[in-house]
Amino acid sequence: MPAIQIKNLTKFYRNQFKALADLQLTVEPGQFFGFLGPNGAGKTTTIGVITGLANFQSGDVKVFGKDVRKDYRETRAMIGLVPQEFNFDPFLSAEQILTYEAGYFGIPYREGKKRAEEWLKFFDLWSKRKDGYKRLSGGMKRRLLIARALMHDPKILILDEPTAGVDLELRYQLWSFLKDLNSKGKTIFLTTHYIEEAEKLCTHAAIVHQGRVVAQDSVDKLIHGLHAEFVDLDLKTAVYEFPKQVGDVQVVLTNGGRGLSFQEKPGIVNKVLHILHEKGIEIEKVGVRRPTLEDAFLTLTAKKGAAGSDA
Amino acid sequence: MMLNTGFVTLVKREIVRFTCVFTQTIFPPVMSSFLYIFIFGFSLGGRIETVQGVPYLTFLIPGLMMMYVIEGSYANTSSSLFISRWANNIEEMLVTPLSYLEMVTAILIGGVARSVVVTSGVYLVSLCFVQTFPVHPAWTIFFIIFVSLTFSAVGMIMALFAEEFEHLSLMTTFVITPLVFLGGVFHSVAMVPEALRWITHFNPMFYMVNGLRYGMLGRSDVPLGQSAAVVLVLFAMLMSVTVYLFHIGFKLRK
Predict the structure, then answer these.
(1) Considering CB atoms only, which of A13, A83, A104 is closest to B10?
(2) Are both A152 and A23 inside the same structural domain?
């Protein structure tokens, strides 16, 4: 039985904007699943539908076989949510935020207090337990969000951009913690802007674009599905306008226009060099590398984007 | 077990919320009730002989208590829910396995708790001026509980519709306060002109004020059954609307 199964999910907002269009997704138990997509692709909306924070017009959404609308109490009990924005209760202290959360999920007060102490100590927040969340630093708030989501020991942990605005040291700590949690059997569903993060952590991933899942597979297969190496060009001067597509290959501007990256295919390098020559731009360095998840992401979203605009 | 613990936790949270800002939620109404009793009841009221067969000060106490039942319960749930929407911590509650009925009931009980605390304070203040003990304690409790549940539901509905804080106070200023005053906090309906007396019967607060006055003094401008029926029907309607709005996620879910 899949941990999360979404079939034909469609959602409109009141202004008729179609946020999700016939979205399909399957997350198996124990996976570390990356849900990737550009801003506005529908990642947070999908999480909202799974957790009960967003309505939807049609489709089936199930968590371990239970319907998120009909059996909402059961599905919500199985999920721990780490939202993108801080949404703490302004009237409670850090410790109360955790004990009350445990209580809402049916955990008796004493047990909740014990768990709160464990997580506060684990996340190095014990000395701040009496403070309201407004007195915590950004990194502390982020850790408190994760602790709160884990208070009822959910089967699935959903994290919406958990490392946004977090310094490198904390990011690496969180990565290590999440990997460890997943290795103990917890299903993790993660959205992130950092493709490197998804590549390092996730066993499986889906790429969502304009409200549709355009690819879903293991991370290895998504990368190897590109069947090609990639060419990186470092330019002496920045190029601000360059065709997004040369032949049938997507060309991506990198490093603020000081670089170009594209899939290696016969004749494409010559065409790209020709365009650069016409623009009078010289090349500083040429590199060839194996594809990354970021390449898969950019290639798939660019293809669908182009297809969408053609239509 | 899970159901009970979650529900009790949310009730506790609602009570903690208003008690941790008690200087804004409990002290001001108790203070202003002292002023009302002192100025209207003790000073001016001394010049009025009796109303409904009791001294004016005695007549005034149940009306004032009902006024604070209504204002306290409305203020509690409207601010609690609106602040939760505004600060987005409503999401904390919405992702839990609590049923919508449990969510609504827990927040309503928070409103009742604040009303009971404030009204008890007002009653204690009144004892400094006049010793009035409830003639019908069960009816006194009935009207305090059910009227505060009713106005807690009004507060929740307003908190869902409101887009800004000031929308909440507009309801207090232009609807609740005028209707409570006209409902007979300070006067008996027998003291107003015939036309106004007829119109007063369409004011639900009139039945609430008189219901509590019956509980406290055994006197009322309207039969007890009518007062109880109005309160129960209003409560059932407003509670149903509130649970329905939560069920469809009105202004709660995106």
Answers:
(1) A104
(2) yes
Distance, CA of A188 to CA of A158 (rounded, Å): 6
pTM, two decimal places: 0.84
Q: Do A89 and B91 touch (CB under 8 A)?
A: no
Name the domain count of chain A.
Answer: 2
**pLDDT of chain A along its 311 residues, tens only?**
899 999 999 998 876 778 888 899 999 999 999 998 878 888 999 999 999 999 999 999 999 999 999 999 999 999 999 999 999 999 899 999 999 999 999 999 999 999 999 999 999 999 999 999 999 998 899 999 999 999 999 999 999 988 877 788 888 888 999 999 999 999 999 998 777 788 889 999 998 888 888 888 888 877 666 556 788 899 988 888 888 888 878 888 888 889 998 888 778 888 898 898 888 888 888 888 776 777 777 777 765 554 433 32
* Alpha-helix residue ranges (DSSP H) falling in A151-292: 168-183, 195-201, 219-224, 268-278
Contact list, B5 vs chain A (CB under 8 Å): 103, 106-109
Domain containing A48 equals 4-223
**Last residue of one domain, picked from the residues A187, A206, A223:** A223
Same-domain status, A41 and A113: yes
Q: Which CATH number covers residue A56?
A: 3.40.50.300
Q: Which of B1, B3, B5, B247 to mutate to test the interface with A (most CBs of A within 10 A)?
A: B5
Smallest Cβ–Cβ distance between A54 and the set B2, B98, B253 belongs to B253
Together in a domain, A194 and A251: no
Asked whether residue A248 is assigned to any structural domain, the reply reads yes
Cα dihedral A280, A284, A288, A294 sign = negative
Contact B88, B126 (CB under 8 A): no
Q: What is the rounded end-to-end Cα distance, in angstroms, of chain B?
A: 31
Instruction: Please check whether residues A23 and A57 belong to one and the same domain.
Output: yes
Residues paired with residue A204 on neighbouring β-strands, in sequence order = A33, A218
Whether residue A300 is contained in a domain is answered as no
Domain boundary among A197, A223, A249: A223
Kindly state whether residues A158 and A62 are assigned to the same domain.
Answer: yes
Does one domain contain both A136 and A242? Answer: no
Same domain, A95 and A236: no
Is A301 inside any structural domain? no
Cα–Cα distances (Å) from A249 to A257, A266, A272, A299, B184, in that order, read 18, 11, 10, 8, 80
Q: Is A51 left (phi over 0), alpha (psi -120 to 50) or beta?
A: alpha
Q: Is residue B89 classed as helix, strand or coil in its secondary structure? A: coil
**Which residues of chain B have a CB within 8 Å of the CB of A100?**
9, 12-13
Has residue A307 been placed in a domain? no
Both A233 and A204 in one domain: the answer is no
Chain B residues whose CB is inside 8 A of the A153 CB are: none
Contact assignment for B12 to A45 by CB distance below 8 Å: no
Q: Which amino acid is at B225?
A: G
- Minimum-distance CB partner of B253 among A55, A90, A107: A55
